[in-house]
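Researcher: I'm comparing several assemblies side by side, and this is the next one on my list. It has 226 residues spread over two chains. Same procedure as the others: predict the full complex and return the structure.
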Amino acid sequence: NAGVMQNPRHLVRRRGQEARLRCSPMKGHSHVYWYRQLPEEGLKFMVYLQKENIIDESGMPKERFSAEFPKEGPSILRIQQVVRGDSAAYFCASSPGQGEAEAFFGQGTRLTVV
Amino acid sequence: KNQVEQSPQSLIILEGKNCTLQCNYTVSPFSNLRWYKQDTGRGPVSLTIMTFSENTKSNGRYTATLDADTKQSSLHITASQLSDSASYICVVRHSGTYKYIFGTGTRLKVLA
């Protein structure tokens, strides 16, 4: 049973390009959370998704950012028209439900905008 | 406002020494509190999880305590090792919701 898989591990984009970050949850997990970590700062909640549903996107910037978790396939965090300030580590976590179950983190995707 | 504050922000100790990290939270109502260890460049890994009814939980050389009345938790590391160098993050879950509220972490460096 593989852990939470994120890819790519490192992503370099020029300003104005699109970044697509993928997260495959652990087997049997239907809940996915995305967090952003700026250099030297803590993790900040972005969005919480269940299969085919966005439950809470209160941490997502209003523009350029979107997330999905389709019935089949990984969860995708999409950043359009990236800017330098989007450079950060993006972590995904998954859990089997809303209860007290453990949430496991992936290794993150480090986005660098040049 | 639901917040989690950790202290100290950073800490340097010698190998073999003990240390204690602090976490104060204002999250209410509270469901559980977790301590994570995050190595540089890697995702956080869970060390302990405690509900409001638990006062202490151990995981090897890591011992977490919780005082739900004062809304304080501590993580005690015994006989530190070089591999303990990492960020330690306190995470509090808001009761009845999915939201995990993260502290900014304590950066621990263990020197030989």
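Model: For your comparison table: Chain B touches chain A through 20 residues (CB under 8 Å).
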